[in-house]
Specification:
Layout: E1 2-7, H1 11-20, E2 25-29, E3 43-44, E4 58-67, E5 70-82, H2 85-92, E6 98-100, E7 104-109, E8 114-118, E9 121-130, E10 148-158, E11 166-169, E12 174-178, E13 183-189, H3 193-196, E14 204-214, E15 220-221, E16 224-226, H4 242-257, H5 264-288, H6 291-303, H7 305-311, H8 319-325, H9 331-343
Parallel strand pairs: 1-2, 1-9, 2-6, 4-11, 9-16
Antiparallel strand pairs: 3-5, 4-5, 7-8, 8-9, 10-13, 10-14, 11-12, 12-13, 15-16
Protein backbone atom coordinates (compact mmCIF):
# COMPACT_ATOMS: atom_id res chain seq x y z
CA UNK A 1 0.00 0.00 0.00
CA UNK A 2 1.24 3.49 -0.85
CA UNK A 3 1.41 6.45 1.50
CA UNK A 4 0.38 8.77 -1.34
CA UNK A 5 -1.05 8.22 -4.80
CA UNK A 6 -0.55 11.36 -6.92
CA UNK A 7 -2.46 11.90 -10.16
CA UNK A 8 -0.78 14.27 -12.62
CA UNK A 9 2.94 14.86 -13.25
CA UNK A 10 2.65 18.46 -14.36
CA UNK A 11 4.63 21.13 -12.48
CA UNK A 12 2.27 21.06 -9.49
CA UNK A 13 2.25 17.29 -9.11
CA UNK A 14 6.02 17.07 -9.55
CA UNK A 15 6.74 19.90 -7.10
CA UNK A 16 4.52 18.28 -4.46
CA UNK A 17 6.09 14.87 -5.04
CA UNK A 18 9.58 16.34 -4.61
CA UNK A 19 8.45 17.56 -1.18
CA UNK A 20 7.26 14.11 -0.01
CA UNK A 21 9.45 11.73 -2.02
CA UNK A 22 10.92 10.16 1.12
CA UNK A 23 7.54 8.46 1.56
CA UNK A 24 6.20 5.51 -0.41
CA UNK A 25 4.42 7.20 -3.33
CA UNK A 26 3.10 6.50 -6.79
CA UNK A 27 2.95 9.32 -9.35
CA UNK A 28 1.02 8.74 -12.57
CA UNK A 29 0.77 10.82 -15.74
CA UNK A 30 -1.66 10.21 -18.61
CA UNK A 31 0.71 11.61 -21.26
CA UNK A 32 3.86 9.97 -22.62
CA UNK A 33 6.27 12.52 -21.13
CA UNK A 34 6.53 15.49 -18.78
CA UNK A 35 6.18 18.99 -20.22
CA UNK A 36 3.90 18.24 -23.16
CA UNK A 37 1.43 19.49 -24.17
CA UNK A 38 2.12 23.04 -22.93
CA UNK A 39 -1.06 25.00 -22.15
CA UNK A 40 0.18 28.06 -20.31
CA UNK A 41 1.34 31.60 -21.11
CA UNK A 42 4.40 30.92 -18.96
CA UNK A 43 4.51 34.40 -17.43
CA UNK A 44 5.34 34.57 -13.72
CA UNK A 45 6.31 37.11 -11.10
CA UNK A 46 9.41 37.13 -8.89
CA UNK A 47 7.59 35.35 -6.04
CA UNK A 48 7.63 31.94 -7.70
CA UNK A 49 11.42 31.81 -7.42
CA UNK A 50 11.07 31.44 -3.65
CA UNK A 51 10.13 27.85 -4.49
CA UNK A 52 11.90 26.92 -7.73
CA UNK A 53 15.25 27.55 -9.42
CA UNK A 54 15.38 30.96 -11.09
CA UNK A 55 15.56 29.98 -14.76
CA UNK A 56 13.79 31.94 -17.48
CA UNK A 57 14.12 32.88 -21.15
CA UNK A 58 13.14 36.55 -20.94
CA UNK A 59 12.85 39.27 -18.31
CA UNK A 60 9.98 41.77 -18.41
CA UNK A 61 10.26 45.41 -17.29
CA UNK A 62 6.73 46.62 -17.93
CA UNK A 63 3.56 46.44 -19.99
CA UNK A 64 1.71 48.44 -22.58
CA UNK A 65 -1.96 48.77 -21.65
CA UNK A 66 -4.22 48.93 -24.71
CA UNK A 67 -7.85 50.04 -25.01
CA UNK A 68 -9.79 51.33 -28.02
CA UNK A 69 -6.75 51.99 -30.20
CA UNK A 70 -4.94 53.84 -27.37
CA UNK A 71 -2.10 52.62 -25.19
CA UNK A 72 0.36 53.74 -22.54
CA UNK A 73 3.24 52.04 -20.72
CA UNK A 74 3.49 50.88 -17.13
CA UNK A 75 7.16 50.43 -16.20
CA UNK A 76 8.52 48.30 -13.38
CA UNK A 77 11.93 46.65 -13.49
CA UNK A 78 11.92 42.83 -13.33
CA UNK A 79 8.14 42.77 -12.85
CA UNK A 80 7.77 39.39 -14.58
CA UNK A 81 9.64 36.54 -16.25
CA UNK A 82 8.91 34.37 -19.26
CA UNK A 83 9.48 30.66 -18.70
CA UNK A 84 10.32 27.81 -21.02
CA UNK A 85 7.44 25.74 -19.68
CA UNK A 86 8.60 22.41 -21.06
CA UNK A 87 12.04 22.84 -19.49
CA UNK A 88 10.46 24.16 -16.26
CA UNK A 89 8.28 21.06 -15.94
CA UNK A 90 11.08 18.65 -16.78
CA UNK A 91 13.39 20.22 -14.17
CA UNK A 92 10.74 19.68 -11.49
CA UNK A 93 10.38 16.02 -12.49
CA UNK A 94 14.07 15.14 -12.07
CA UNK A 95 14.76 11.97 -10.04
CA UNK A 96 11.05 11.19 -9.64
CA UNK A 97 9.53 7.81 -10.44
CA UNK A 98 6.65 8.46 -12.85
CA UNK A 99 4.28 5.97 -14.48
CA UNK A 100 3.46 7.40 -17.92
CA UNK A 101 0.38 6.70 -20.06
CA UNK A 102 -1.50 5.78 -16.91
CA UNK A 103 -4.94 7.32 -16.34
CA UNK A 104 -6.90 7.64 -13.12
CA UNK A 105 -10.37 6.08 -13.53
CA UNK A 106 -12.05 5.81 -10.13
CA UNK A 107 -11.61 5.65 -6.36
CA UNK A 108 -13.42 4.02 -3.45
CA UNK A 109 -13.09 5.03 0.18
CA UNK A 110 -12.37 1.99 2.35
CA UNK A 111 -12.15 1.91 6.15
CA UNK A 112 -8.46 2.77 6.45
CA UNK A 113 -7.37 3.23 2.84
CA UNK A 114 -8.40 4.39 -0.61
CA UNK A 115 -8.84 1.95 -3.48
CA UNK A 116 -7.69 3.51 -6.75
CA UNK A 117 -8.41 2.18 -10.22
CA UNK A 118 -6.39 3.18 -13.30
CA UNK A 119 -6.15 1.80 -16.83
CA UNK A 120 -3.19 -0.28 -15.62
CA UNK A 121 -4.51 -1.77 -12.40
CA UNK A 122 -5.88 -1.33 -8.89
CA UNK A 123 -3.86 0.23 -6.07
CA UNK A 124 -4.31 1.11 -2.41
CA UNK A 125 -3.09 4.25 -0.70
CA UNK A 126 -3.57 6.21 2.52
CA UNK A 127 -3.94 9.46 0.56
CA UNK A 128 -5.03 10.39 -2.95
CA UNK A 129 -3.76 13.67 -4.42
CA UNK A 130 -5.40 15.29 -7.44
CA UNK A 131 -2.93 17.37 -9.45
CA UNK A 132 -4.74 16.38 -12.62
CA UNK A 133 -5.55 19.80 -13.96
CA UNK A 134 -8.55 21.66 -15.22
CA UNK A 135 -10.68 18.57 -16.00
CA UNK A 136 -9.71 16.79 -12.80
CA UNK A 137 -11.36 13.42 -12.23
CA UNK A 138 -10.13 13.29 -8.65
CA UNK A 139 -12.16 16.46 -8.00
CA UNK A 140 -15.37 14.40 -8.19
CA UNK A 141 -14.44 12.74 -4.87
CA UNK A 142 -13.74 16.01 -3.02
CA UNK A 143 -16.08 18.73 -4.23
CA UNK A 144 -19.81 18.52 -4.91
CA UNK A 145 -19.62 21.26 -7.52
CA UNK A 146 -17.60 22.09 -10.60
CA UNK A 147 -15.76 25.38 -11.06
CA UNK A 148 -16.67 27.74 -13.86
CA UNK A 149 -14.42 27.74 -16.90
CA UNK A 150 -12.78 30.46 -18.97
CA UNK A 151 -11.88 29.74 -22.60
CA UNK A 152 -8.40 30.59 -23.80
CA UNK A 153 -6.13 30.10 -26.80
CA UNK A 154 -2.53 31.08 -27.48
CA UNK A 155 -0.35 31.14 -30.60
CA UNK A 156 3.43 31.32 -30.68
CA UNK A 157 4.36 33.31 -33.78
CA UNK A 158 7.28 35.06 -35.42
CA UNK A 159 6.54 38.68 -34.55
CA UNK A 160 8.77 41.58 -33.55
CA UNK A 161 7.85 43.26 -30.27
CA UNK A 162 9.78 45.29 -27.71
CA UNK A 163 11.68 42.51 -25.98
CA UNK A 164 11.31 43.55 -22.33
CA UNK A 165 7.70 44.79 -22.53
CA UNK A 166 4.47 42.83 -22.74
CA UNK A 167 1.19 44.13 -24.16
CA UNK A 168 -2.19 43.71 -22.45
CA UNK A 169 -5.47 44.50 -24.17
CA UNK A 170 -8.28 45.24 -21.73
CA UNK A 171 -11.35 43.80 -23.43
CA UNK A 172 -11.44 41.07 -24.41
CA UNK A 173 -8.43 40.32 -22.21
CA UNK A 174 -5.53 39.39 -24.47
CA UNK A 175 -1.75 39.58 -24.44
CA UNK A 176 1.49 39.68 -26.36
CA UNK A 177 4.38 38.13 -24.43
CA UNK A 178 7.81 38.23 -26.12
CA UNK A 179 10.07 35.22 -25.77
CA UNK A 180 12.77 37.32 -27.41
CA UNK A 181 12.89 40.13 -29.97
CA UNK A 182 11.47 37.97 -32.78
CA UNK A 183 9.06 35.42 -31.25
CA UNK A 184 5.94 36.18 -29.20
CA UNK A 185 3.17 34.34 -27.39
CA UNK A 186 -0.13 35.93 -28.38
CA UNK A 187 -3.27 34.80 -26.58
CA UNK A 188 -6.75 35.68 -25.40
CA UNK A 189 -9.40 34.81 -22.83
CA UNK A 190 -12.96 35.29 -24.08
CA UNK A 191 -16.29 33.56 -24.68
CA UNK A 192 -15.28 32.88 -28.29
CA UNK A 193 -11.47 33.02 -28.37
CA UNK A 194 -11.01 31.46 -31.81
CA UNK A 195 -13.01 34.25 -33.44
CA UNK A 196 -11.94 37.05 -31.08
CA UNK A 197 -8.16 36.63 -31.31
CA UNK A 198 -6.60 39.09 -33.74
CA UNK A 199 -3.19 37.92 -34.90
CA UNK A 200 -0.60 40.10 -36.63
CA UNK A 201 1.12 38.77 -39.73
CA UNK A 202 3.78 36.23 -38.91
CA UNK A 203 4.64 32.55 -39.15
CA UNK A 204 2.70 30.49 -36.59
CA UNK A 205 5.06 28.17 -34.72
CA UNK A 206 2.61 26.57 -32.31
CA UNK A 207 -1.04 26.74 -31.22
CA UNK A 208 -2.56 25.80 -27.89
CA UNK A 209 -5.98 26.17 -26.35
CA UNK A 210 -7.82 25.15 -23.25
CA UNK A 211 -9.96 25.97 -20.28
CA UNK A 212 -9.10 27.84 -17.08
CA UNK A 213 -11.02 26.86 -13.91
CA UNK A 214 -12.31 29.65 -11.65
CA UNK A 215 -14.53 29.57 -8.58
CA UNK A 216 -14.57 28.36 -5.01
CA UNK A 217 -14.64 24.58 -4.47
CA UNK A 218 -13.76 22.25 -1.61
CA UNK A 219 -10.20 20.91 -1.82
CA UNK A 220 -9.90 18.31 0.99
CA UNK A 221 -12.15 15.41 1.98
CA UNK A 222 -11.62 11.86 3.27
CA UNK A 223 -7.82 11.92 2.81
CA UNK A 224 -8.21 13.12 -0.77
CA UNK A 225 -6.98 16.60 -1.70
CA UNK A 226 -6.61 18.79 -4.76
CA UNK A 227 -3.78 21.12 -5.81
CA UNK A 228 -3.41 23.59 -8.68
CA UNK A 229 -5.93 23.80 -11.51
CA UNK A 230 -7.72 20.77 -10.06
CA UNK A 231 -8.39 22.95 -6.98
CA UNK A 232 -9.29 26.01 -9.07
CA UNK A 233 -6.27 27.84 -7.61
CA UNK A 234 -6.04 30.40 -10.42
CA UNK A 235 -6.19 34.16 -10.91
CA UNK A 236 -9.74 34.83 -12.17
CA UNK A 237 -8.83 38.08 -13.93
CA UNK A 238 -5.87 36.82 -15.96
CA UNK A 239 -6.11 33.03 -15.77
CA UNK A 240 -2.62 32.55 -14.31
CA UNK A 241 -2.28 29.55 -12.02
CA UNK A 242 1.34 28.43 -11.89
CA UNK A 243 2.39 30.51 -8.87
CA UNK A 244 -0.70 29.71 -6.80
CA UNK A 245 -0.39 26.03 -7.69
CA UNK A 246 3.28 25.83 -6.66
CA UNK A 247 2.52 27.75 -3.46
CA UNK A 248 -0.36 25.41 -2.61
CA UNK A 249 1.83 22.38 -3.34
CA UNK A 250 4.44 23.76 -0.95
CA UNK A 251 1.81 24.28 1.76
CA UNK A 252 0.43 20.76 1.23
CA UNK A 253 3.89 19.20 1.28
CA UNK A 254 4.90 20.95 4.49
CA UNK A 255 1.64 20.00 6.19
CA UNK A 256 2.00 16.37 5.13
CA UNK A 257 5.54 16.23 6.51
CA UNK A 258 4.18 17.57 9.82
CA UNK A 259 1.28 15.05 9.78
CA UNK A 260 -1.26 17.90 9.59
CA UNK A 261 -2.56 17.55 6.04
CA UNK A 262 -6.17 17.81 7.26
CA UNK A 263 -5.49 21.55 7.66
CA UNK A 264 -4.63 21.95 3.98
CA UNK A 265 -7.87 23.56 2.80
CA UNK A 266 -7.90 26.20 5.53
CA UNK A 267 -4.15 26.87 5.32
CA UNK A 268 -3.93 27.58 1.60
CA UNK A 269 -7.01 29.82 1.82
CA UNK A 270 -5.38 31.68 4.71
CA UNK A 271 -2.27 32.18 2.56
CA UNK A 272 -3.77 33.42 -0.72
CA UNK A 273 -7.50 32.69 -0.71
CA UNK A 274 -8.37 36.37 -0.30
CA UNK A 275 -6.48 37.17 -3.50
CA UNK A 276 -8.65 34.68 -5.39
CA UNK A 277 -11.85 36.06 -3.85
CA UNK A 278 -10.79 39.57 -4.86
CA UNK A 279 -10.13 38.28 -8.36
CA UNK A 280 -13.56 36.62 -8.54
CA UNK A 281 -15.23 39.89 -7.58
CA UNK A 282 -13.09 41.78 -10.07
CA UNK A 283 -13.95 39.27 -12.80
CA UNK A 284 -17.68 39.75 -12.23
CA UNK A 285 -17.26 43.52 -12.50
CA UNK A 286 -15.08 43.08 -15.60
CA UNK A 287 -17.67 40.85 -17.29
CA UNK A 288 -20.42 43.43 -16.80
CA UNK A 289 -18.59 46.72 -17.21
CA UNK A 290 -19.69 48.93 -20.09
CA UNK A 291 -17.22 50.18 -22.68
CA UNK A 292 -17.77 53.71 -21.39
CA UNK A 293 -16.86 52.70 -17.84
CA UNK A 294 -13.91 50.63 -19.06
CA UNK A 295 -12.63 53.77 -20.77
CA UNK A 296 -12.97 55.64 -17.47
CA UNK A 297 -10.98 52.89 -15.75
CA UNK A 298 -8.33 52.97 -18.48
CA UNK A 299 -7.95 56.74 -18.08
CA UNK A 300 -7.77 56.33 -14.29
CA UNK A 301 -4.93 53.82 -14.57
CA UNK A 302 -3.15 56.06 -17.07
CA UNK A 303 -3.50 59.08 -14.76
CA UNK A 304 -2.27 57.12 -11.71
CA UNK A 305 0.37 55.02 -13.40
CA UNK A 306 3.21 56.28 -11.17
CA UNK A 307 1.36 55.11 -8.04
CA UNK A 308 0.57 51.81 -9.73
CA UNK A 309 4.16 51.29 -10.86
CA UNK A 310 5.35 51.83 -7.28
CA UNK A 311 2.80 49.73 -5.39
CA UNK A 312 1.30 47.03 -7.60
CA UNK A 313 2.37 43.40 -7.25
CA UNK A 314 2.24 40.92 -10.14
CA UNK A 315 0.87 38.17 -7.89
CA UNK A 316 -1.41 40.33 -5.71
CA UNK A 317 -4.09 41.93 -7.85
CA UNK A 318 -5.71 43.34 -4.69
CA UNK A 319 -2.79 45.80 -4.46
CA UNK A 320 -4.66 47.87 -7.06
CA UNK A 321 -7.72 48.09 -4.80
CA UNK A 322 -5.92 50.36 -2.33
CA UNK A 323 -5.33 52.92 -5.06
CA UNK A 324 -8.93 52.64 -6.25
CA UNK A 325 -10.41 53.03 -2.76
CA UNK A 326 -8.27 56.11 -2.11
CA UNK A 327 -9.47 57.77 -5.34
CA UNK A 328 -12.97 59.31 -5.06
CA UNK A 329 -13.05 59.91 -8.81
CA UNK A 330 -13.11 56.17 -9.59
CA UNK A 331 -14.29 54.06 -6.65
CA UNK A 332 -17.98 55.03 -7.11
CA UNK A 333 -17.80 53.38 -10.54
CA UNK A 334 -16.76 50.08 -8.97
CA UNK A 335 -19.26 50.52 -6.15
CA UNK A 336 -22.03 50.70 -8.76
CA UNK A 337 -21.12 47.29 -10.17
CA UNK A 338 -20.52 45.83 -6.72
CA UNK A 339 -24.01 46.83 -5.57
CA UNK A 340 -25.50 45.33 -8.74
CA UNK A 341 -23.67 42.08 -8.05
CA UNK A 342 -24.83 41.94 -4.43
CA UNK A 343 -28.44 42.68 -5.39
CA UNK A 344 -28.45 40.04 -8.11
Amino acid sequence: MYDLFIVGAGPIGCYFTQKIKEFNYKLIEEHAEVGKPVQCAGLVGENIFKYVVKEYINKINGAYIHHNEECFPLKKRNVAYVLDREKFDKNLSKDLSISFKERFLAAKIRKDKIEIKTNKGIYYSKYLVGCDGVRSKVRNYVSNKEPSYLKSIQHIIEYKHEEDMISFFLKPFSWIIPEDSKICRIGIISKDPYNDLRLPKGKVINKTGGLIPVGRINTYKNNIFLIGDAASQTKPLTGGGLYYGIKAADIAGNLFLRDKIEKYDSEWRKSFGKQILFGLLGKKIYDNISDEDMTKFYNFVKKNRKKIEESCNFDKHSSLSKIILSSPDIWPLFLKYLVRELVS
